[in-house]
Amino acid sequence: MGQISVNRVSKSWGSFVALDSIDLDVREGEFLSVLGPSGCGKSTLLRIIAGLEAPSGGEIHLAGRNVTRDPVWKRRIGFVFQNFALWPHLSVFRNVSMGLELRRTPAAELRKRVNDALAMVQLEALADRLPSQLSGGQQQRVALARAIVLKPEVLLLDEPLSALDKNLRQDMQVELKTLQQTLGLTTVFVTHDQEEALSLSDRVVVMNKGVIEQLDTPDAIYNRPVSEYVARFVGEAFFFRGRVEERGATQGMRLAEDMVIPVEGAGQRAGRDGVAFVRPEWVTLDTPQPHGDVELPRGVVDRLMFFGQSSDYLVTLGNRQMRVKRRPDAPKFRAGDTVILRCQARLLPNAASAP
Amino acid sequence: MKTSALVLPAVVILGAFFVVPLIWVVILSFLGAGPTGEVQHAFTLGNYVRFLTDSYYVNDLLLRTIRLAAIATVFSVVIGYLGAFVIARAAPTTQTWMILLVMLPLWVNLVVRTLSLMVVLGRNGPVNQILVGLGITARPLPLLYNETAVVIGMVQVAVPFVVLSVFGVLQAIPRQLEQAAMTVGATPLAAFRRVTLPLSVPGILAGSVLAFGINVESFVVPILLGGGRVRFMSVAAYETATVSNNLPFAATIGVILLIVTMVMLGVYQWAVRSAGRPATAIQAA
Amino acid sequence: MGKFLAAMAIALATTLSAQAQTKELVVAAFGGAYTDALKKNIARFEKDNDVKVTFVPASGADGLAKAMAKEIDVVHADMAWAYRGEAQGAFEKLDPNIVTNLDKLYPKARFSEYGVITNFGEYGIAYNPKEVSPAPSSWLDLWDAKYDGAVSTAGFDAANIELLVLMAKLNGGNEDNIDPGFKKMAELGKHITVFYSQHPQLLDLFRNNEVVIARWLRGRVDWANKQGVSLGFAVPKEGAIGLVSTVHVVKGRPNTELAQKFVNHLLSVDSQTAYASDLGYTPARAGLDLKGVKVPYGEEVVGSLLIADWKKIVPKMDAWKERWEKEVVAR
């Protein structure tokens, strides 16, 4: 059993099922992200772990203790709200110290622990300020300090970075990860930002309509998604549908009479219909040779999108458009050029999940 | 230029209907009255001396007025706060109905409302019937025509104003602030005391200032519920003008009530504001 | 069509000019049923004098203020406000050549050169016959310890001032020596739980048996009986206290003569009869035929009414009011 153990937890409001029998174990010291679009149930799950919401069924264990019936104030958690939820009438110091005051911590110890927590988020100098006198990033740090000062068994973060602008968000991601590793805190991080989830986490949960779609390492989630839903939600994906066929030692997918794309991945036997996908960086564009690669898919370059450190081609394939990462060593194409696509698409294990 | 032109009508209206009559009342309070009530145009401090050197006016009238208004304000704020809290925590559809229910009395004439309160509090009214029926008292209690009745009447008038001013403030406090307190170990009561209550101080302040202002100026309530025994400043001012026919002294009573009320409200605001901001109670070392 | 329009225009112009010539007389009265009774016979007066009479509800302080501001032509008052108005020079002398009906009044109705009493009401003792037996016969019955807590009177109003003066007189004082009166009234104050301020309030107190005996108006006791609260009304042997309505012509208005005529109209047989039949008040005019009207009437009735010397009282009212609060109301 992990530090956090969620057993068959359900939540419904009337006929609306927010969570459908969720099972989840979070290991001690692990950074686990819960990823999904709004309304998928990820925040509800986090609030049930915290005790801010009661489950309709199932059990929650924290550090081996069944806390399902414990109210939030008896669980040893740290919680960071999306909009920080700092107390506007209290100074930074008192925002952080309230938890210790409530535990009747002796004054000297209280002062030391609050100052340590503030030091950890580099806010010692602003202890006397009111939250309204702080920037967004500083407020975020106060919220973090407030959560960690109590040395919680678990740290629960509800989209804590979504209120910050992009640059600040990236800085805070690094800080957050460093802090988590320093303290060895078991952390559940709810987000709808897949890059954030992939870069910070030891493992990622992808949720969809109240169920866990996939739980795995960031690498596996990105490269070996179990469903079209996960593939689509995490990173950019372009899908192919067709019949899987053996092509010697490898597999291919016949997309049309004269078009086959090489595929890999277990789960689809030859002769069955399947779904495969590619990421933009998996594809190499090439100039079609008069007599070679006759069955490879062909497309027409629409334009090149320049992002600074990288650039993407927008390529029209049939009536769909896909994005292909431009390789520095590859020849340059212009709008209107016909190209062939060299790539190995990945077969999704379960055809039933295709729409 | 433009702004001042826009503000002008408001200034004119305020001046014509508030400031000018007020200045006239203040001037009047420094004049004398002849034997048949004619105002004598000669400066005198006599009216203030008469009021301030007579324990009847200071104790029986002024202090009683302030005491009853203050007691009624405390009850109004407590009851109004509880009401506002319940409404703020109710479902949105229920909320609309509850607010409507709170505002309903404001659309009924004050005299009519007070008269119905007389029926409720009367010797054979429902309150006494319940008290006697439950055996809490053997005989009907004298709930009418005394200070208690006046306080109840004032509370009845002021509570809706407190509810509305506190509700607005409570509504604007995100529930997450209380939840945040609970995540650091606060029970709901502690979370309320440490977060919601201090944050709703502006509402309490506005509500109590409004309630005290309304209560201290009460006229209909002490006349109808006081049974002629509960003397009140506004009633005394009115009777001094209409029965004694001493307009300058009536003006004096009004001015003294106004000054005392303003001073009290000033002190009260200052006290509540400084009590509501114990931010430096624990210093960062 | 054109002829028709022209005729219309002429008709309209005629009406407008006729209206423009009609004078207006503004009369301040007590309002409610009182004004309704005054309106009853007004049409003929308006027609005879080519005048439009407008009634505004104002009396007491308000009425005097309007008179001083010359906003009204005729004003109603009670004894106190009548003397105040007279002292402040608000009123015109009544002209006996126009107000010819002055001769027909009981002498007691002749207030002064500056005003006249139009009718009287009677304050006596209202009592619950089930609780008060035998019927009260003296004002002093209000003081009976039996009725401690169950006796009521109003606040410092005109009738209580009369009672105060009566008590002074019964105990060796008078308007100039009021101390004995206050001493006696202070004793009454100790028996009183509620000083009523509204008639419906006293009615409720009688209905709930919280009050069994009170100083009240005869007309109001009749009204209480109609409301299903059976009460008796006793005229004390010392005399009933007179409720007095005066009327005055305001000085410095353009239509003083019309105003004098209006006062004369109020003293006419029709108007005087209406005071009795519509309001239950005793008319000030002698020799009326009031058969079938249940109102006390006649020389003897009017003569026996207690009406103090208000000329002496008015300058003392401010002081008396303060004493009343301190000595009678305070416990």
TrEMBL record, chain A:
It comes from the Bacteria. GO terms for molecular function: ATP binding; ATP hydrolysis activity; transmembrane transporter activity. Residues 4-234 form the ABC transporter domain. This is Putative spermidine/putrescine transport system ATP-binding protein. Pfam families: ABC_tran, TOBE_2. One of its GO terms (biological process) is putrescine transport. Gene3D superfamilies: 2.40.50.100, P-loop containing nucleotide triphosphate hydrolases. PANTHER family: SPERMIDINE/PUTRESCINE IMPORT ATP-BINDING PROTEIN POTA (PTHR42781), SPERMIDINE_PUTRESCINE IMPORT ATP-BINDING PROTEIN POTA (PTHR42781:SF4). Keywords: ATP-binding, Nucleotide-binding, Transport. It comes from Chelatococcus asaccharovorans.
TrEMBL record, chain B:
Keywords: Cell membrane, Membrane, Transmembrane, Transmembrane helix, Transport. Pfam families: BPD_transp_1. PROSITE patterns: ABC_TM1 (PS50928). Signal peptide: none annotated. Gene3D superfamilies: MetI-like (1.10.3720.10). InterPro entries: MetI-like (IPR000515), MetI-like_sf (IPR035906). It is a multi-pass membrane protein. One of its GO terms (cellular component) is plasma membrane. GO terms for biological process: transmembrane transport. The keyword rRNA processing does not apply. PANTHER family: ABC TRANSPORTER PERMEASE PROTEIN, INNER MEMBRANE ABC TRANSPORTER PERMEASE PROTEIN YDCU-RELATED-RELATED. Belongs to the binding-protein-dependent transport system permease family. CysTW subfamily. This is Putative spermidine/putrescine transport system permease protein.
From TrEMBL, chain C:
InterPro entries: SBP. Keywords: Periplasm, Signal. One of its GO terms (biological process) is thiamine transport. Pfam families: SBP_bac_8 (PF13416). Transmembrane segments: none annotated. Residues 1-20 form the signal peptide. SUPFAM superfamilies: Periplasmic binding protein-like II. This is Putative spermidine/putrescine transport system substrate-binding protein.
